[in-house]
Amino acid sequence: MLYRYKITPGSPLMTPLMSDTLFGHFCWAVLYHEGADYLSDLLDLYDTGNPAPILFSSAFLSGYLPRPAMSRLNMKKTGAFVRRHFGKDKKKFFEGLSKISAWHNRQLISVKQWLNLKDNYSEEKLYEEFITEHPDENKICEIEVSVAKQVNRISGTVPDKSAGPFYKEKTWYYDGIVFDLYVEINDEKMNAAAEWFLTEYLPENGFGADKSSGMGNLAIVCDEDFDSECFSVAAPNARVSLSLTAFQGMERYRAAYRLKTKFGKLGGDFAAAGTAGGDPKPFKKPVLMYEPGAVFFCTERLSDRPLLKNIHSDKRIRHCGIPITLPLTVDG
């Protein structure tokens, strides 16, 4: 079952609202609330070949979904489209090409556009939608970049005078900005856990880096008006990911995608101390992932893939690259 939650930032965010990070927060919440044995048993369910008990999407600006990562129109089709919609004289033609170039960089499409195209999707049809429904180009946030150095929390000093600085990005969202988060639940026992985690635990404890100093404050409510049947497709031939995606055997699937390298860090207690005690070793191995919007040319839901293993020196640590996917019929 697919659910949708509405997220309103109440403070700046230091960490993007990405699917794998949300899954990590969920695991720590379960550990603190139910204990280590419960979490271990839960994670083992992801390796059974059955649909994952619970999955998270990344968060998208409310009313939008990731744009399918399809190939651009070739020059011949682009030229024909521009002449048809913008005009044939040189000035209008180049104005049209500039508009198309700007469209290439858009990674979100409106839910309305998605619903119009889900049964017969193509890039040319998407451009037709952009013509009739002009994309909103308004900024939604400001990004503040600051320079910091590591500080010893006991002595209050910089431990290594020769250590270079690192940069931190703080994202300030404008008033009224809301995000949509999709949650797929395939085990009804997870319904209460998801509701508690999203509407109680995260608002009370914060999300991402520097939450102890007030960052990552979120207000989250379940979208009671959402009906997942609106995303149904009569004869799908592809699936589009709403999550960062990486799983064993992914190379066997023909796909169109944008890549992102994740340099993950451990959270919770492991951010302050090592997994076996001693000095912390918070960094995971880099993981190359498909960004949301990846198109898999298959009809499988892909929610029964296993968690990634061997991504940290502690073999217990795993990483979630299992995607929530929506069905799509790609034209041609």
Spell out the key features of this protein.
alpha+beta; 332 residues; single chain; four-stranded antiparallel sheet; globular; five-stranded antiparallel sheet
Characterization of this structure:
- The chain is α+β, with helices and mostly antiparallel strands and 332 residues long.
- 25% of the residues lie in helices and 20% in strands.
- It contains 7 helices and 15 strands.
- The chain has helices at residues 19-34, 36-44, 75-85, 90-104, 111-117, 123-132, 190-205; strands at residues 2-9, 54-56, 60-61, 64-66, 108-110, 141-148, 166-173, 179-185, 218-222, 238-241, 255-256, 259-262, 287-290, 295-296, 325-328.
- The strands form 5 sheets. Strands 1, 2, 3, 8 and 9 form a 5-stranded antiparallel sheet that branches. It has a 4-stranded antiparallel sheet with strand order 11-14-10-15, with no helix packed on it. A two-stranded antiparallel ribbon has the order 4-5.
- Helix 1 (19-34) crosses helix 2, helix 1 packs across helix 7 (190-205) and helix 3 (75-85) packs across helix 4 (90-104).
- The radius of gyration is 22 Å and the shape is globular.
- 28% of the residues are buried.
- The model has no long low-confidence stretch (mean pLDDT 89).
Overall 3D form: globular
SS content category: alpha+beta
Helices, by number, come to 7
SSE topology string: EHHEEEHHEHHEEEHEEEEEEE
- Binned, the helix content reads 25-40%
Mean pLDDT: 89
Number of strands: 15
Radius of gyration: 22 Å
Question: What percentage of amino acids are in beta strands?
Answer: 15-25%
Low-pLDDT segments: none
Distance between the termini: 30 Å
Tell me about the largest β-sheet: 5 strands, antiparallel
